[in-house]
Amino acid sequence: MLREEARLTGKDLAARLGWAQSKVSRLENGKQTATIEDVEAWAQAVHASAEHYDTLVAELRGMRYEYAAWKYQLRSGTARRQRANLPLEADAALVRVFVPDMVPGLLQTAEYARHVFARLVNLHGIPNDVDEGVRTRMRRQQVLYDRAKRFRFLLTEAALHYRLCPPSVQRGQLDRLLAAAGMDTITLSIIPFTATLPVVASHAFTMFDDTLVLVETIGAELAFKATEEKALYADVFERLWKVGVQNHDAATLIDKVIKELPK
Questions:
Q1: How far apart are CA 156 and CA 96, in angstroms?
Q2: Which of 18, 25, 67, 208 suits 153 as a labelling partner, its CA being 20 to 30 A distant?
Q3: What DSSP designation does 83 have?
Q4: Each residue of 202-222: pLDDT tens digit?
């Protein structure tokens, strides 16, 4: 194992990490599930290679779930987390996204994204790399033009109305949403205020094929790979999709919100 290759005892490693020796023992014997923070700290402590680190992270993602606090994921700013999504989106043939409170990141304009990231910087007290975060988010959007892929975006009517930015930016964002809805790779569904909800989903989530579900909460992101959780989120997505409006009706709803914006 990596600890032994580094010629460290469990006691030595615990001291280097500032952990209790019992934690090292529990992790090594499978009695405690490591977090992504644990893996990174362990890898640094034993001077693991980048290849070893990537293998450890891949093994962790293969477990039932992974928990990663936003404070940790965003500790160096917003761009790093954006880059983490690039391989996930590149590898998936079908991406399903549900966002109840804003326009999904893959469909955001640069100016809208700038206001979203500014709020994250303020909330979590992280380094202000908003410009780099925006550039990386725009880079992510290139995947939308891959005709071998399909994207299903599900959002609520409230997401069209919430003011995260000035009206002029909001108008540009909604225009972008109309244009995106016409792309061959994208299907858009909007849950209107008048819809009877079959379930209440209060947090955003993204499904990559049938292999991974990323769930966003206020404090952290959860990554689910277990069959039952994936099936549950797929069921919720389909139930909500059915009460949404698509195609011409979705475009009509977006156009209505645009006309209601202040001049």
A1: 14
A2: 67
A3: H
A4: 899 999 999 999 999 999 899
Phi, psi of 156 (to 5 degrees): -100, 160
Question: Could you tell me the domains of the chain?
Answer: 1-63 (1.10.260.40), 64-260 (3.30.870.10)
Residue 38 in tokens? 């644990």
Backbone φ and ψ for 35, nearest 5 degrees, come out as: -90, 170
Q: What percent of the chain has pLDDT over 90?
A: 65
The answer to whether 122 and 167 have CB atoms below 8 angstroms apart is: no
pLDDT tens profile 70-115: 888 888 899 988 998 999 999 999 999 999 999 999 999 999 999 9
**Cα torsion 213, 180, 92, 70: sign:** negative
Say how far apart CA 97 and CA 104 lie, in whole Å.
Answer: 8
